[in-house]
Write a structure and sequence with these properties.
By secondary structure, the protein is mostly beta strands. It has a single domain, classed as Sandwich (lipopolysaccharide transport protein A fold). Helices cover 7% and strands 63% of the residues. The protein contains one helix and 18 strands.
């Protein structure tokens, strides 16, 4: 009886009584034979492709002004994907807010992979940006077999999808394996140029260690190139090197 009533209600939604249409700003609610529900919503974006949200449950409030997705929620806008425990989409702006075990991924055909995790996220379709905060961490693998990913933590990340730029804000910490790390106020990762730029109001603090020794340097900026891997310290560079005892 409940399933029948739900299907009728959703049928009215899809037929347009609440201004929801499948595949054009769609709201779809399907009851599986086993009784578990699955919900999906999708809309065209200003760029190529569509944005789709799937979840275990979906709730419409304020005449569809807000749509709440809960349980195994996945937002997909190829090549980007974001998972969370809960998401809310606001009809007027198209903004989607996510919370709980947020994981965003971006995979390229070359095998390059970027993964971002945090407690909260916000996707803004008109600006084509995704913000991430709450113990936010960004990891980058050069390819599927990369054993030492580049890892960056910050208070907040802002990804600009169209330009493949990711900005890191406040208390940025970078490391690759155990041999190289750096601290800065700001960071910017250029996906197209394959370079990470570190800078801030205070000098960037860079530390490295290998079998030959260790070193610590201060500089106004640091450029970290991913392919080939190399670091470049710029402007007012000071520091020291400690050789490994022979």
């Amino acid at each position: 009886m409940y399933a029948s009533a739900t299907k009728k209600y959703v049928s009215n939604l899809i037929m347009g009584k609440r201004s929801c249409r499948l595949w054009v700003g769609a709201c779809l609610f399907i009851l599986s034979p086993g009784g578990r529900s699955w919900a999906a919503w999708t809309e065209p974006t200003p760029s190529t492709g569509e944005t789709t949200i799937t979840s275990d449950e979906m709730e419409l409030i304020h005449n569809g002004g807000e749509t709440i997705f809960t349980g195994h929620v996945i937002l997909i806008r190829p090549p980007y994907q974001m998972k969370a425990d809960r998401m809310i989409r606001y009809k007027e702006t198209g903004i989607v807010e996510a919370e709980g075990n947020v994981i965003g991924t971006w995979d390229k055909p070359t095998g390059e992979r970027v993964e971002a995790v945090g407690a909260y996220a916000r996707y803004t379709p008109q600006a084509q940006t995704t913000e991430l905060w709450g113990a936010a961490r960004l990891s980058h693998w050069d390819n599927a077999t990369d054993p030492t990913p580049l890892i960056v933590t910050a208070e907040r990340f802002v990804a600009h999808h169209d330009t493949e730029i990711v900005d890191g804000e406040t208390h940025v910490f970078f490391r690759r394996g155990t041999s190289f790390q750096a601290h800065s106020d700001r960071a910017q990762f250029d996906g197209k140029g394959q370079v990470l730029n570190l800078w801030g109001t205070q000098q960037t603090d860079t530390l490295w260690a290998d079998p030959r020794g260790s070193g610590r340097f201060l500089s106004d900026r640091v450029l970290l190139y991913l392919s080939p891997r190399r670091a470049r310290l710029l402007d007012h560079v000071t520091g020291h090197v400690i050789p490994t005892p022979q």
